[in-house]
Design goal:
The complex is a heterotrimer of chains A (235), B (97) and C (771). By secondary structure, chain A is an alpha+beta fold. Chain A has a single domain, classed as Alpha-Beta Plaits (2-Layer Sandwich), CATH 3.30.70. Chain A has helices at 19-28, 34-39, 106-110, 152-164, 177-181, 198-203, and strands at residues 5-10, 48-54, 61-67, 86-88, 94-96, 117-118, 145-146, 187-191, 208-209, 221-224. Chain B has five helices and no strands. The longest helix of chain B has 12 residues, at 12-23. Chain C folds into five domains: 1-28, no CATH class; 29-111, Single Sheet (N-terminal domain of TfIIb); 121-192 and 406-476, Rossmann fold; 196-389, Dimethylsulfoxide Reductase, domain 2, CATH 3.40.228; 618-756, Barwin-like endoglucanases. Helix content of chain C is 27%, strand content 18%. Chain C has a seven-stranded mixed sheet with strand order 6-5-17-16-15-7-8. In chain C, strands 23-25-24-27-21-26 form a six-stranded mixed sheet. Chain C has a four-stranded mixed sheet with strand order 1-4-3-2. In chain C, helix 7 (282-295) runs antiparallel to helix 9. Chains A and C meet through helix 1, helix 2, strand 2, strand 3 and helix 5 of A and strand 3, strand 4, helix 1, helix 2 and helix 6 of C.
């Protein structure tokens, strides 16, 4: 059975706690930039929580929105890569092959979501922080682009496990690091090709929208709009 | 040490092993088949074994060797060739992630 | 040489070196025989307990084999050992239910922190100079036990003082037993943001002297007075799980959330309605709302409640708390007060709760009692019970909390006894992860006091401002290397006990603090040894927790041995749901509560502040940071780099100011400002925020360390260092929201050092990327 991995982000459940951000760092060996590089805009948060403000005191309103690679069906980052490092996989992901990346950064330029991060310097870890590094995830070096992979290492592990048990993968076998950590269950990950999966069910919600959908990127991340008090319908 | 505490203890090679054990040191094994980190590749034996791939096809005929040496020069081409022949996915992310 | 420089994994050491490994000769390090039997590439998941806040969430630790540089028998080498790779929430814990917060994940960086103290050290230079030299465990323990034995001989055991951060479970018990048997006073349990006020209020109002458990998943209306319940207050993960369910977990029902605060917190940002209330008047606001409910008879049940009886005028309908009067006191309009009263009582299951800044005023207890009275009035669902309840305590024999005074007053007394030169003034100070030199207000003069104590021993695993004063440091294991236990005070309506063996073997030459104390007890002999007859800490744990088997619950075991094994394997025991509901309900007074029924109602009190409004026009709000807690997590790089969710600031301190205030004072985004109180000044960059009242300025706590490792030292400013030593009237807790300040621009963005994570759409106000 072929898969189409997708994520749903329920903005009415997201609390802005950023557990997803740290979970992602821990899972994916994301380097810590340090103050100097961070002040040059080189901190890498594969998933980040954006906030937008409306209104003034005493009625300010904030909305939180986790933003990560949208794994677009029509990803603008793919056609611009001269080496096919950014390419589309058979299970609906936008893959990033670190080996092929030569660091032109056209993909980051093309991405309207600003979710691609370039290694401007060689990542280092003060020993023994390196002992925590996840052996299932490659360490990227200077000159290579990186971004959210929907925890592809977990996808592949689950595939191998399912094959060993001679069965198909089922919804809930595994999930991404961010969704696993999300206490309010705002992040849900799964297979859109399975009509009974949680992701499929939530994607059909009447609150569903896409981020910058009007650009035609066909993202595989669906956002469920935040509610107001008068709004009693839910999916 | 178990077996070689008593068996063939005068053999110079066994004496080397005994010396490590006495010092509480692990024998510094040298890996023969591996990938350089810049290859960003992960290899999992399990699906290959389940698929019935013979050890010798990647590691050479170890039954006749007395020292561990790399006999087969593996590169991505050899992996792809076999994957194509067996009609297994050649998606980049299968191995490079 | 490879085409690209990359992180070299040396074939010999198996470790990751820095870039300049090219050209540096590889060190040949001896490989030790592994002490564990691990299969490479296969992960085992071991249970543990998160110790980074008091919620007591259960963890699962992903352990995989890897090479680590260690010292064995004085020799440096490499050994294959189990390494902790990732932390996840333990699905078996009813508190966090498999989820984990941002700080919980960063707990891994405590274990592998490069600034951990790796072996015992003894001071060689002047105190605070940072000059230490290595000392063996044998020598260190000999020296320490000689010291203690001398105190016993001279009958000066009363001058041993133990200053520790609050610990739950058997470590608390062990320390108290040691001190009692030794003849020393009880420990001073100190942390800057303690919850003494709320516990006291809950004891008086509901008969439970504990933090509340909120069943938010059933709520239709939540009115929170200042509680950062989705971020840092009480049991944030459990509360977040409930919050998600409250919003979208029930088809057709969406709970409403109203937050009352003077500065929009991360929690407040999620509300449906935000109510700005004058600092310290939250209790009056609650009474204004209660007035409307009582007088218009909006509540479904009668107004008589224990909590209500504590408020003067309650039975008469709170005649002085009309919406118009309360509007003048709080700044919240009468129309809003009236509307909230109606909404609270018409919405289904409602709850009112209080936490954070409203409790940190001189009238904090009053504020809490007022909100508790409102809560008792509106949270009236009988089946299955109110939204706000209490976790039943597990029947661990010695679950009693310390009877010593609450944290802040303990610090004050400690300092005072040094200055007064009392006969039992501390001569020997034991420290365990308490850092009052950083976090206690300067008016306590705790730094001076500690400097006068002749002999100081620290058991913590980091040098910080306080442990830097130690003469001897006997470093503890990291939490993941330790036997951990705690009992959930809140977060679940089931009793929860956490118990876990070490998930990984010790990386450095450290020893578990409980085992060190047990060893000392044995060495001292006599009463101390009798009080703690355990060869190792896990024997003490076993004795304490095995009696839970008789209560059934989540572990079904036929023998004590089976129970003990099962408990270690699961990491958590919980009582059967629903069985303890009567003990946990608010209406039943807890049998362990002392007789508080005869207390006279508390007089209305308005908050008091230090500094006059003329000289110090702003209320100062230091707030517990989502990243650093009380500052003890500032040495974890993931948390330093985590963008603050409201400002996106990283690696920085900042001051939040209302834009109109900024315009009036000529302060622009990113400018360097100086905040001054009667106690002192701090400087930090300004962030203009519409989420703060024009007469309030706020600063996150956690930065401004002078001595706390490479990631935290010399970074930002410490708002706690300008707080006045003002306390809550009844409990003596520090009123950290009662300081007034003045503010002035002292420089531009180039001097200010504010780092923002800019990516994607910019928020309000526009974010400049400093270069």
């Amino acid at each position: 059975m072929s898969h189409k991995w997708a994520m749903v982000v329920d903005l009415d459940r997201c609390t802005g706690c950023e557990a997803c951000v740290v979970a992602c760092h821990a899972e994916n060996n994301i380097p810590t930039a340090g103050e100097d590089q961070a002040s040059r805009g080189r901190a890498m948060h594969w998933i980040r929580v954006e906030r937008s403000w409306e209104g003034d005191f005493p009625n300010p309103q904030i909305r939180f929105q986790p933003v990560l690679c949208q794994q677009c069906d029509d990803a603008p980052c793919e056609p611009v890569c001269p080496t096919y490092a950014s390419y589309h996989t058979s299970d609906g992901l936008n893959g990033q092959a670190y080996n092929r990346c030569i660091g032109t950064r056209f993909c980051a330029n093309a991405c309207p979501y600003n979710v691609r991060f370039f290694n401007f310097y060689n990542p280092t870890w003060d020993l023994p922080l390196n002992l925590q590094l996840n052996p299932d995830v490659s360490l990227r070096s200077v000159g290579v682009m990186e971004k959210c992979t929907f925890c592809v290492q977990r996808i592949k592990s689950a595939e191998i496990q399912a094959e060993a048990e001679k069965r198909e993968m089922k919804d809930g076998d595994f999930t991404t690091a961010c969704a696993q950590s999300c206490a309010s269950k705002a992040l849900v990950f799964g297979d859109l090709n399975d009509p009974n999966s949680e992701v499929s069910r939530l994607e059909r919600s009447n609150r569903a929208t896409k981020l910058l959908g009007e650009l035609g990127t066909k993202p595989n991340v669906t956002y469920l709009e935040r509610g107001t008090w008068q709004d009693a319908t839910s999916v | 040490m178990t077996c070689h505490q008593a068996i063939d203890t005068d053999n110079p090679e066994i004496k080397k092993i005994a010396a490590y054990a006495q010092r509480g040191e692990e024998i510094p094994w040298v890996r023969v088949y591996n990938y350089s980190p810049s290859a960003h590749v992960k290899f999992n034996h399990a699906p290959h074994i389940r698929a019935g791939v013979q050890c010798a096809s990647c590691h050479g005929d170890m039954t006749t060797q007395t020292t561990a040496e790399r006999k087969v020069n593996l590169n991505m081409g050899s992996c792809i060739q076999c994957h194509r022949a067996k009609q297994v996915s050649v998606d980049c992310e299968l191995c490079h992630n | 040489m490879e085409r690209r420089n990359f992180i070299k994994i040396s074939a010999l050491t198996g470790m990751i070196a820095t870039l300049d490994a090219c050209g540096r000769p590889d060190q040949k390090l001896i490989r030790f025989v592994p002490e564990e039997d691990l299969i490479p590439g296969i992960a085992t998941w071991k249970p543990s307990v998160c110790t980074l806040c008091s919620a007591g969430c259960g963890l699962l630790v992903r352990v995989m084999e890897g090479d680590a540089e260690v010292v064995r028998h004085g020799q440096r080498g490499v050994m294959q050992m189990g390494l902790a790779k990732k932390l996840e929430g333990n699905p078996k814990s009813p508190i966090n239910q498999g989820k984990l917060c941002a700080r919980g994940h960063a707990g891994l960086q405590v274990l592998y922190n490069p600034d951990r103290i790796t072996h015992p050290i003894k001071r060689t230079g002047a105190r605070g100079s940072g000059e230490f030299q290595a000392i063996s465990w044998d020598d260190a323990l000999k020296e320490l036990s000689a010291h203690l034995a001398a105190m016993q001989a001279a009958k000066t055991t009363g001058s041993l003082s133990f200053l520790a951060r609050p610990l739950s479970g058997q470590r608390h018990e062990l320390i108290e037993r040691f001190l009692k048997a030794f003849g020393a006073p009880p420990a001073v349990w100190y942390q800057p943001f303690d919850e003494a006020v709320l516990r006291q209020a809950n004891l008086l109002s509901f008969g439970h002297g504990a933090l509340p458990t909120l069943d938010l998943g059933r709520a239709d209306y939540v009115l929170s007075f200042g509680a950062d319940f989705l971020g840092t207050w009480n049991s944030p993960v459990a509360q977040s799980v409930g919050y998600g369910a409250m919003r979208r977990g029930r088809a057709g029902r969406r709970g409403k959330f109203v937050q009352v605060e003077a500065r929009m917190s991360q929690t407040g940002a999620n509300c449906d309605e935000w109510i700005a209330c004058r600092p310290g008047t939250e209790g009056l606001l609650a009474l204004g709302i209660a007035h409307v409910i009582l007088n218009q008879k909006l509540a479904s049940q009668g107004p008589g409640s224990k909590a209500g009886s504590l408020i003067p005028g309650w039975s008469a309908g709170l005649p002085e708390s009309t919406p118009e009067a309360v509007e003048k006191q709080t700044g919240v309009s009468a129309a809003v007060i009236t509307r909230i009263a109606h909404e609270l009582t018409k919405s289904g299951s409602a709850t009112a709760l209080i936490g954070g800044a409203p409790l940190a005023h001189t009238n904090g207890l009053f504020n809490a009692l007022a909100v508790n009275a409102l809560e008792a009035l509106v949270d009236t669902v009988r089946d299955p019970g109110p939204i706000l309840g209490f976790t039943p305590e597990p029947a661990i024999g010695n679950a009693a909390k310390s009877t010593a005074p609450a944290g802040f007053s303990g610090i004050n007394s400690l300092a005072q006894s040094v200055f007064d030169g009392q006969p039992h003034a501390p001569q020997v100070l034991f420290l365990y992860e308490a850092n009052p030199i950083f976090s206690a207000p300067p008016g306590t003069r705790i730094r001076e006091a500690i400097a006068k104590i002749p002999y100081i021993v620290s058991f913590g695993n980091f040098i910080d401002e306080t442990s830097a004063q130690a003469d001897l440091i006997l470093p503890d294991h990291a939490p993941l290397e330790s036997w951990l236990d705690s009992m959930g005070e809140s977060g679940s309506l089931q009793s929860v006990a956490n118990l876990a063996p070490p998930a990984v073997a010790p990386l450095h030459d450290t020893r578990a603090m409980p085992d060190v104390l047990l060893g000392l007890a044995k060495e001292l002999g006599g009463d101390v040894a009798k009080a703690l007859p355990f060869a190792a800490y896990d024997a003490m744990l076993r004795m304490a927790y095995v009696p839970l088997r008789a209560r059934g619950g989540s572990i079904d075991a036929k023998t004590d041995d089976d129970f003990w094994s099962a408990l270690q394997a699961q990491g958590v025991w919980s009582s059967t749901p629903g069985t303890a509901s009567t003990a946990g309900s608010k209406s039943a007074a807890s049998t362990s509560a002392p007789a508080a029924a005869k207390r006279a109602p508390m007089a209305l009190t308005a908050p008091e502040f230090t500094g006059t409004a003329d000289d110090f026009p702003f209320y100062f709000l230091p707030y517990v940071s989502q990243s650093f807690g009380d500052g003890s997590l500032a040495n974890l790089p993931w948390l330093q780099e985590l963008p603050d969710v409201l400002t996106t600031a990283m690696w920085s301190s900042w001051v939040e100011i209302n834009p109109k205030t900024g315009a009036r004072l000529g302060i622009q985004q990113g400018d360097l400002v100086e905040i001054g109180s009667q106690q002192g000044n701090v400087r930090a960059p300004a962030v203009l925020s519409p989420g703060i009242a024009p007469d309030v300025v706020a600063m996150p706590v956690g930065q401004g360390h002078e001595n706390f490792g490479r990631f935290a030292s010399g970074r930002g400013a410490n708002p706690l260092s300008i707080l006045a030593t003002v306390t809550e009237h009844e409990t003596g807790s520090l009123a950290w929201a009662a300081t007034r300040v003045k503010i002035a621009r002292v420089g531009g963005p180039e001097q200010a050092r504010l780092t923002l994570f800019s990516g994607g759409r910019s928020g309000f106000p526009h974010e400049e990327e400093p270069r």
